[in-house]
Amino acid sequence: MERRSTASLMPRMNFVLAAGGTGGHMVPAHALAAELLARGHGVLVITDARGAKIPGLFDKIPVHVLPAGRLGRNPITMFKTLLTVSRGRSEARRIYRNHPPDAVVGFGGYATFPALLAASAARIPSILHEQNAVLGRVNRMLAGRARAIATAFSQIDRLKPGNRDKVVLVGNPVREEIVRVGEMPFPAFDDTSPLKILVTGGSQGATILGRVVPTGLGMLEPSLRRRLQVVQQCRPEDIDTIRQTYADLGIPAEVMTYILDMPEKLADAHLVIARSGASTIAELTAAGRPAILVPFAAATENHQTANAREISNAGGARTIPEADFTPEALARQVEAVAGDGQALANAASRSLSVGRPHAARDLADLVERIGGGLSPLPVGPVLEPRPAVKFAGTGLPA
């Protein structure tokens, strides 16, 4: 069944978006804000001091900073947090009186807590968006108050049975440039062509990728090593060592601390080696790129391993636990991929098949309906299917 936006059916409304101050929460909020503004709605953002310092996201949107506090088990910390949250809730109520919203959307993080508590007290409908495959701590505490819980993955851990009927599968919003990569043909690859590898550790880089990947690629057979072309993002303190390692191995490599042109780099890549943060998974599946994933072992409640579950089960990625991520293990995986170009192309198709490229649109549809006093649509089951090229094989080799 074809879905269509409700934009042309809804009158102008006002929405508050509340997000904690990390990129993982703020970037999806930015994507929704852009979609709602394009539909003619009013948008106001509530965040904490960290979120207000992120440049370029909400330059043209009113931003209010709330005291949010941090949750902890120490009695003194808990008492201070309660006072901070109470003050933040009062400030949010004042914002709502001055700028009455039709709905409040929370993206997780501590700034979401007082904002949605105030919405509940004022009888303003609220929606939660969970970026990870494990419901976050703040979202768990707020789930009972929300009208709907928008999720990025079809399976969500730590969700109480009583809240499951609130779940609407929408995905994680990604940039339109990333979506366009998924609409392009997968780069040609055979046993004589260059193998282009993109290595990214998320917005902060990842030390283990900088330590293991160059060494692992250096263990490949010389005939394969000569075909490699690598783009690697890393931490600033690792950049000189990584560049020198690739130079010593004779592997052409572009090493940087931040990838400004991610859509272009994804479009060129045959294989991605990465962490499995929510934004990374959303971009991989929207672009349709096979991956070797190394979940961050210290991630809260092991949510990166859960994030990798869907794309790995579909055959679009291989997951290597951090404890097992050695140069030898990586070399085995790369050799298996490079030896079967058909499996690599098939894995790209399988990665694309679990992508949700219209997440911003579907989340905006949901928010409009809740703000308009309507029941949520079952967004997940009726997403527009992505075209997939049929290949033999079963995805990335085991």
UniProtKB/TrEMBL annotation:
E.C. numbers: 2.4.1.227
One Gene Ontology MF term: undecaprenyldiphospho-muramoylpentapeptide beta-N-acetylglucosaminyltransferase activity
Record has Glycosyltransferase as a keyword: yes
Catalytic activity: di-trans,octa-cis-undecaprenyl diphospho-N-acetyl-alpha-D-muramoyl-L-alanyl-D-glutamyl-meso-2,6-diaminopimeloyl-D-alanyl-D-alanine + UDP-N-acetyl-alpha-D-glucosamine = di-trans,octa-cis-undecaprenyl diphospho-[N-acetyl-alpha-D-glucosaminyl-(1->4)]-N-acetyl-alpha-D-muramoyl-L-alanyl-D-glutamyl-meso-2,6-diaminopimeloyl-D-alanyl-D-alanine + UDP + H(+)
Keywords, sorted A to Z: Cell cycle, Cell division, Cell membrane, Cell shape, Cell wall biogenesis/degradation, Glycosyltransferase, Membrane, Peptidoglycan synthesis, Transferase
Membrane topology listed for this record: Peripheral membrane protein
Domain Glycosyl transferase family 28 C-terminal: 197-354
GO biological process, one term: peptidoglycan biosynthetic process
Location in or out of the cell: Cell membrane
Domain Glycosyltransferase family 28 N-terminal: 15-150
GO cellular component: plasma membrane
Pathway: Cell wall biogenesis; peptidoglycan biosynthesis
Chain positions recorded as UDP-N-acetyl-alpha-D-glucosamine binding sites: T22, G23, G24, N132, R175, S203, I259, Q304
Reported function: Cell wall formation. Catalyzes the transfer of a GlcNAc subunit on undecaprenyl-pyrophosphoryl-MurNAc-pentapeptide (lipid intermediate I) to form undecaprenyl-pyrophosphoryl-MurNAc-(pentapeptide)GlcNAc (lipid intermediate II).
PANTHER family: GLYCOSYLTRANSFERASE (PTHR21015:SF22), UDP-N-ACETYLGLUCOSAMINE--N-ACETYLMURAMYL-(PENTAPEPTIDE) PYROPHOSPHORYL-UNDECAPRENOL N-ACETYLGLUCOSAMINE TRANSFERASE 1 (PTHR21015)
Protein family according to the UniProt entry: Belongs to the glycosyltransferase 28 family. MurG subfamily.
Protein's name according to its UniProt entry: UDP-N-acetylglucosamine--N-acetylmuramyl-(pentapeptide) pyrophosphoryl-undecaprenol N-acetylglucosamine transferase
